[in-house]
């Protein structure tokens, strides 16, 4: 059993490159896997490892100046959900495409999970899911608005296109959420910049809500998409029922797998018609390599661009 930690914090970093190297060396020595993004605005990532080693890694990250209260959500996985460790330098640790939006300067109200249900049940509240469409498709809060984005950087344009009135901006409650809290926190900073007055976001995101609120009292419907090999988690944070199409990196169900357009490791009904025969041949060759690696009790590491695509 492996421990998994989703973590982030907005906190100004004077020398991101130096910190990047320190994190890379320390976590590598602890045999930690996963991805951490480091930028001037803070740290964001998900990592995994044996429980004791992961705890050491967390202690190290909390020892960094400004990160003693880094937000961390832990869960378990039967297998290691990552194939390697990647520490990346980024201009933004979550990309919204506007560097003037700075959660270190202004941010909405943090709503604890225990108070979330009351807020989103209020008829004066506009509830917005700041995640992408494929994440929304497998689960969300009841009555949440889906912006139908493919990438988070599309969110500002969606807001502008909604033609919110001045009354909305002044008198409505805007409540936002995402997987771990980082996207909705940055989105709250953006909404305040755009003139909204009553802006809040779910502290610690959906994963913190799952950990804090019982299923009996939950207003969540479905499962929660996660950016690792588990694909999704249930309300009890156990591994979910979804698989991933390795052609388009989208979540798929057992029913999708019964389709004539499903080829394991190659395509699914969502992407079959949009991929060429040459691409299908290439994906099929990759899947054969994955199967051979499994027979050797190894984990296949795919092309770098495919791994990066899954993180967008």
What does this 3D model show about the protein?
The chain is an alpha/beta fold. The protein has 3 domains: 2-89, Alpha-Beta Plaits (2-Layer Sandwich); 109-222, Rhodanese-like domain (Oxidized Rhodanese, domain 1); 242-310, no CATH class. The longest helix is centred in the C-terminal third of the chain and has 19 residues, at 277-295. The chain contains 10 helices and 15 strands. 32% of the residues lie in helices and 22% in strands.
Question: What features would you highlight for this structure?
Answer:
3 domains; alpha/beta; Oxidized Rhodanese, domain 1; 5-stranded mixed β-sheet; disordered C terminus; 312 residues; globular; Alpha-Beta Plaits; 22% strand; 15 strands; 4-stranded parallel β-sheet; single chain; 10 helices
The helix-and-strand class reads: alpha/beta
Our measurement of the CA-to-CA distance between the termini, rounded to an integer number of angstroms, reads: 27 Å
The named CATH superfamily of the largest domain: Rhodanese-like domain
Total separate domains:
3
Fraction of helical residues: 25-40%
Work out the number of β strands.
15
Order of helices and strands: EHEEHEEEHEHEHHEHEHEEEEEHH
- The first-level CATH class of the largest domain is given as Alpha Beta
Topology:
Blueprint lengths: L1 E9 L5 H14 L3 E7 L2 E8 L1 H13 L7 E7 L7 E5 L19 E3 L1 H9 L3 E5 L3 H4 L2 E3 L13 H7 L4 H6 L1 E5 L4 H12 L4 E5 L2 H8 L7 E3 L1 E2 L6 E2 L9 E2 L6 E2 L24 H19 L8 H7 L2
Parallel strand pairs: 2-5, 6-10, 7-9, 9-10
Antiparallel strand pairs: 1-3, 1-4, 2-3, 8-11, 12-13, 14-15
